Amino acid sequence: MLRRTFALPPLARLTPPPLPCTATNLTSLALLHTTHPWQERRSRKQVLAAIGAKEPTPALVALGARLGLPFNPELLRQIVTHHSFVGEVEEPNNRRLEYLGKRVLSLYVSEYVHIKYPFLPKENFSQVLAGYIGNATLANLGREVGMQHVVRWTEPTRIVHDPERTLTIACSQTAAEDQLTQSAVVGKAMASLIGALYRERGPESAKRFVHMHILSRELNVRDLIEIHNPKRYLTWLMRRQNRKEPESRLLSETGRTSVSPVFVVGVFSGEEKLGEVCLLVLDMMTYLFLTFIVCTEIHQVSAPR
Amino acid sequence: MASTLSAKSIPLARPKNGVGAFVFQCRKLVFSYCEHFGSNNGMVCVSFHSVRVFRFKDRNENSPVLWLSFVSDLVKFAKKNPQIEIVVQHRPAHHPIVKGFYREIFVPRPTDLHRLNGRDKVICVRNLSPSEIGDKVKLLRDSSGAKTKLLAKKPVLSTTESVRGIWSPFHSRRHKI
């Protein structure tokens, strides 16, 4: 049997056959036999090495299509290459794109939160921002879209804790928590993706991407808010907005002398009703009622142009 | 600003696939074949490193026309679904299989979505014709990755268990003996 070696592409890929299958000549078909396929099977290490190959992998191209990104494969490769990655050739990495992407994210998410929750206290604002664009969320988002299969990075060697040489380790190497993890790399790749989108396609495109993928996530803002003096806070809020001082009025009641009375109390600022709540005890101003006012959601979010 | 917050104080932003953008759930399909085993006749895949020898007078299913049609079908499928990574893998001395890999989802337990986390589905396509294999491939592509659930017993999925509402004593007639 004649043997012939082919120059094989890095990964299994569906390519057209090297010779026409409709060949009728038996001898020409015999020429097609190569080495047995199981000898050419690639180990996992070889496959991983192929990820560092020159051509972009199918997984990378699929990722671009999954997110609807109009990038060429070279830019996609740059987005997923962390600066710790060491390849044969000097490859462009995503460090600058990540820097830009983080700021772009911060802009569009801040804008959205500022408009959607106009009365949100500032501590909660930073919490909500972290919830949308924090490292953990970006890492989760990256994993959901399949970024962990395409990121190119170098895993740092584990630090072995040596009690006798604790001091020298602290000086020369970073702590265990600061060590690079795959989640961190995936999160950085997501940020750099948005940075690349901003750079290539402009702010409108980036904003649309942020709204579709990041701001579509559900975040419970009401649970975050802690107001210790709700009456005081409400008074301050009304004064700040030049509205009349808030006062509570009893709207309706039932069963006052019974075991389980129900009172409907409304808080008014002059003629305008801010909100109402059902109380079981007449003097109790519940905490939930105030957070309801503070977290008024404007359903039609219109961002400044 | 965000870096000064502790990990516990950062709220969880739950993913809502489809609310904004829809991320396709099937991320990868792997086609495994063996060119010698007869059950692979339907899973005809002309790879770059081996071609089966056959006679010109053969007019059965193993004809090259059928092979090329499957290959072009797979290429067409790949082009129509660019978000799926398609891998053709040679696996000698085994039945042919199609394996679908699905995306990971990060929600804390216990929710329904946690069941979809990074699962994969395998379908053995031995002795199936190319069109039947195509049906199985479509099944894998359209799946969310969740385990196959029997939907016949509970056709209605709702926040209220009953369609007409739960009985309440305040909204019904007084009980009469």
Automatic annotation (TrEMBL), chain A:
GO biological process: RNA processing
Keyword Electron transport included in the entry's annotation: no
Keyword NADP: no
Alphabetized UniProt keyword annotations: Mitochondrion, Ribonucleoprotein, Ribosomal protein, RNA-binding
Domain RNase III: 63-202
Subcellular location: Mitochondrion
One cellular component term from this protein's GO annotations in UniProt: mitochondrion
Entries under Pfam families matching the protein: DSRM_MRPL44, Ribonucleas_3_3
InterPro entries in the record: Ribosomal_mL44_DSRM_metazoa, RNase_III_dom, RNase_III_sf
Molecular function per GO: ribonuclease III activity; RNA binding; structural constituent of ribosome
Stated family: Belongs to the ribonuclease III family. Mitochondrion-specific ribosomal protein mL44 subfamily.
Name of the molecule in the record: Large ribosomal subunit protein mL44
Organism: Jimgerdemannia flammicorona
From TrEMBL, chain B:
Residues annotated as domain Ribosomal protein/NADH dehydrogenase: 58-144
GO biological process: mitochondrial translation
Coiled coil regions, renumbered to chain: none
Record localization: Mitochondrion
Gene3D superfamilies from the UniProt entry: Glutaredoxin
Keyword list, A-Z: Mitochondrion, Ribonucleoprotein, Ribosomal protein
Any single Gene Ontology cellular-component annotation: mitochondrial large ribosomal subunit
GO molecular function terms listed in the Swiss-Prot or TrEMBL record: structural constituent of ribosome
SUPFAM superfamilies (UniProt xref): Thioredoxin-like (SSF52833)
Top-rank taxon, per record: Eukaryota
Family: Belongs to the mitochondrion-specific ribosomal protein mL43 family.
Protein name (Swiss-Prot/TrEMBL): Large ribosomal subunit protein mL43
Gene source species: Jimgerdemannia flammicorona
